[in-house]
Amino acid sequence: MISIIILLFVSLSIIQFMMNSIQNRKREFGIYILNGGRIVDISKIVLYEIIIYMVVALTVLFAIVNALNIFNLNTTLIIIGLTIVYSFITFLLPYKKIKNFEVKELIKGDE
Q: How far, in Å, CA of 30 to CA of 16, rounded?
């Protein structure tokens, strides 16, 4: 039960971090649009950032699991699968925010 609460807290923290990152980078995204980028390309950038965060988290997790000598192939496959699903779920809210941006709003760069 405690692990579910911690997972929810971490999930909300990551989503909030990504939302703030998107808000703070509106001008950068606007410049990207002016240079021929598309909203879909910006969405891909954010998705890749989330994937990088998850890979780093998995690396740390595997280091801890290996140090505690509780390494198991089934557990490893479950963790990798859940991380992939978790990454895409975490991506949904920032993706929705990016899709709702108007090009004019991005170019202007208002907060």
A: 21
Is the pTM higher than 0.90? no
**Taking a C-beta distance cutoff of 8 angstroms, is the pair 10, 98 a contact?**
no
Q: Of 62, 40, 51, give the one whose Cα is nearest residue 88.
A: 51
**What are 60's two structure tokens?**
């740390």
39-90 pLDDT, tens per residue? 889 888 888 888 888 888 778 877 877 787 776 777 777 777 877 787 778 7
Residue 109 Ramachandran class (φ > 0 left, ψ -120 to 50 alpha, else beta) = left
Q: Are 19 and 97 in contact (CB under 8 A)?
A: yes
A 10 A CB-CB count for 87 gives 19
Other beta carbons less than 10 A from residue 82's beta carbon: 11
